[in-house]
Amino acid sequence: xxxxxxxxxxxxxxxxxxxxxxxxxxxxxxxxxxxxxxxxxxxxxxxxxxxxxxxxxxxxxxxxxxxxxxxxxxxxxxxxxxxxxxxxxxxxxxxxxxxxxxxxxxxxxxxxxxxxxxxxxxxxxxxxxxxxxxxxxxxxxxxxxxxxxxxxxxxxxxxxxxxxxxxxxxxxxxxxxxxxxxxxxxxxxxxxxxxxxxxxxxxxxxxxxxxxxxxxxxxxxxxxxxxxxxxxxxxxxxxxxxxxxxxxxxxxxxxxxxxxxxxxxxxxxxxxxxxxxxxxxxxxxxxxxxxxxxxxxxxxxxxxxxxxxxxxxxxxxxxxxxxxxxxxxxxxxxxxxxxxxxxxxxxxxxx
Amino acid sequence: xxxxxxxxxxxxxxxxxxxxxxxxxxxxxxxxxxxxxxxxxxxxxxxxxxxxxxxxxxxxxxxxxxxxxxxxxxxxxxxxxxxxxxxxxxxxxxxxxxxxxxxxxxxxxxxxxxxxxxxxxxxxxxxxxxxxxxxxxxxxxxxxxxxxxxxxxxxxxxxxxxxxxxxxxxxxxxxxxxxxxxxxxxxxxxxxxxxxxxxxxxxxxxxxxxxxxxxxxxxxxxxxxxxxxxxxxxxxxxxxxxxxxxxxxxxxxxxxxxxxxxxxxxxxxxxxxxxxxxxxxxxxxxxxxxxxxxxxxxxxxxxxxxxxxxxxxxxxxxxxxxxxxxxxxxxxxxxxxxxxxxxxxxxxxxxxxxxxxxxxx
Amino acid sequence: xxxxxxxxxxxxxxxxxxxxxxxxxxxxxxxxxxxxxxxxxxxxxxxxxxxxxxxxxxxxxxxxxxxxxxxxxxxxxxxxxxxxxxxxxxxxxxxxxxxxxxxxxxxxxxxxxxxxxxxxxxxxxxxxxxxxxxxxxxxxxxxxxxxxxxxxxxxxxxxxxxxxxxxxxxxxxxxxxxxxxxxxxxxxxxxxxxxxxxxxxxxxxxxxxxxxxxxxxxxxxxxxxxxxxxxxxxxxxxxxxxxxxxxxxxxxxxxxxxxxxxxxxxxxxxxxxxxxxxxxxxxxxxxxxxxxxxxxxxxxxxxxxxxxxxxxxxxxxxxxxxxxxxxxxxxxxxxxxxxxxxxxxxxxxxxxxx
Lengths: 351, 361, 354
Description:
The complex is a heterotrimer. Chain A is built from 14 helices and no strands. The radius of gyration of chain A is 26 Å and the shape is globular. Chain A folds into two domains: 53 residues; 197 residues, MetI-like fold. Chain A is mostly helical. In chain A, helix 3 packs across helix 14. Chain B is 23% helix and 35% strand. In chain B, a hairpin with a 6-residue loop joins strand 17 and strand 18. In chain B, helix 2 packs across helix 3 and helix 2 runs parallel beside helix 4. The longest helix of chain B is centred in the middle third of the chain and has 18 residues. Chain C is an alpha+beta fold. Helices cover 60% and strands 12% of the residues of chain C. Chains A and C meet through helix 2, helix 3, helix 5, helix 6 and helix 7 of A and helix 1, helix 2, helix 5, helix 6 and helix 7 of C.
């Protein structure tokens, strides 16, 4: 199924395409030369370092820049966050905050029943948890299935594949704010969708007043915006499957469904894992899109955990950094455990 | 051009010992082949020499200099990989020039060396192509070319012919031999194919389970294998290895071979009656005779190759025996033939598999 | 079972040339057509809407294309008047300009003969409209706000941040895919662990760090914190793991230093994955919202997204400006995409050793 670029050019015909490819190559080559020159300058110092510390310690040199950034802007903040979560007051600098022990956590977990957010003292947090869980389950499931379907279809011998791929990928580029604005514009009371509904004799629906509809559109818009990315990842995986496998299956007169189940899916599995991991991460982190689209409403129907944290820390009357930090530590732990679980599953599958 | 010396080289991956103390000397300009079944450690040994793996114990010397802790890039060796490992994003020319650029040679010198190697390997027309656009044989030659331009101290080959088809393999084998004759460099070559080993090597190193079984010239190994393993590994078709029991050893060695008795003239001292032995006989050292044979066999299969014929025959109590006949034969499956072992050409191995006597000994 | 038998039957026939369309092909085209409408429609609707006048935006049901009511100048009237098609009581249809509305009745005038005036019931008239692109939606805000400046800031942030990300992420990915070393698993765990941590959660402490570094209100405050993306390391590492180890060892035999192996062997072969990461990074940086909002408070360092937000705050419900600026914001990314998508396609096509 993998098509070589040269073949694509010939099939597509037309000098325009060839010219485009040629200019692309020229640009690529000159950029490459520039980068090559810059890298060449680093060559000598790097060689000196290698001579000084030995080739075996070179990986640390390669890791260093990335981990300096990680340290400054991820690990250190996480540590500060933990400090925030065990201190009280409203001060920003950790040294000015009084120690409060696990009070913030105790407050967060003060619940009659964990299944009923209303029985909790901090009910908004638990609503956020419930909403996020619901959102992630629907979004990830639908996302994986839809992008798999789309990738399989885009991998067929179809006219205009490049165009269709671009169409599905395009929304990925839009900023969450833009995405939310576009759909708000369509879904509003006098918007395009309600116009279509009334044209077919229906009643206008106030999508952002009904909790069910609000959640549905939050999931829908999120899938709309991010599906193209996962489709592309899966498509890359599909195209990497050697075509002789399919030819062999064809020789055996294997039914298409079986080919898909026994050849395509297993070989696509690494890419599927990437898709599931990425969409899970993005799903749990969902904030701006839903925030701009529904504002978390109606009521707290689409309030997500991250929004709860953000509002607790920044936009409430009293900026409660401690409580927000405690909530983010909890969220962080959940995410970490999820990741480990995911990895364990992957490892097992590979065996 | 250089000589190589390994002293007690060991390699273990975690608890698994892959090489158990290898001692080896390779002389300047010698073509040495490491041969053995898969998993015998021959590739690991090559990689240890290359510097791609470090030894767990022991030392490596090149031209008398200890290089045990010298990284691969500084040992001055060149290697041809089984997968060729051509850089897919570089043209043939760039592939060959890469190492030379790293050595800091002048562009003119690089150009000269690349074009010389290109001519030698008939690659001149393909220098600007990417590896993707080459045939298997051409890629192979590029991989060799990449080693040649380096003018390395030692050439290392890791099963370089295993990805070629049979015809090309024979052709390339001959080219390699010619190349060695022309360049005269020290070459170390790993293969599992004993034909390659026999045809290319000045000396063969037979490895099994991380140990050297025997080192010697191809014909030494063929004529006087030091143990059952080497006897069975070198030579195609394999040497017939038949279990035997000593009846008596009093100047004439009498053996029970299956249900028949065999008397050997050559006295071997110290064999007790009832001791188990292995009798080795190469297929060409067994003759079909009209009478007075040592054994009677029933033919299972006849392979007519035109110039020679292989006959596979058996008798109760013994494994199948292979016979090589010159020319063509009328024998066919089901015929019964009498055979005689060529006197003075038999190998004897004790219970542990060590050679007791060889024809030339 | 029946379906699979059918599929097998069809599969056999598909072998020949000019084979008839299988039902799955038809379904696929239908799916793609629907996808086109669903994926591209909303954006198209945004673009069309952005060319509508303020009045046209408030209509229900909305018109598909940007239409504007025709206005005419009538002698004796100080301002241009809206033109309507009116059905008069005698059944004739005429085009009249409206002077004013009084309750359910409109007072109208014939633009060709201003002395002739009519009183017309509201339901008897219909506006005369023509296609008109309200380009002032674009030009006015570009004149009134420093949008070009914001654009420049956004381009700078996006390009510099992406270059840094590509460099340090690929270096880390290279170390984590090619070498075995002490602490490798810990480093991997750190990368995968931070995959899941959104900046939203650590917004306050990161702000604290950036303040301490004295970077507030500098574009570097936006560029640096997100430069080391765990996603990028993860993605590139997965790709680099698929490169044959022989290549790296061959390079080592060819006397290449570790750095040369990185940039002359591994980097060129990782180009497809780098292109994907470049697209990601461009997208993230261009669209980044919450973090720049927190650290950029001076107008001259605003990025486009923050500018757009400020603009939204200032103009409240002025959808016509907002929609137009939204289009401006997504336009450069669209252009970059058109260029890089080609890279990706060729990249994916030419990967692999053979």
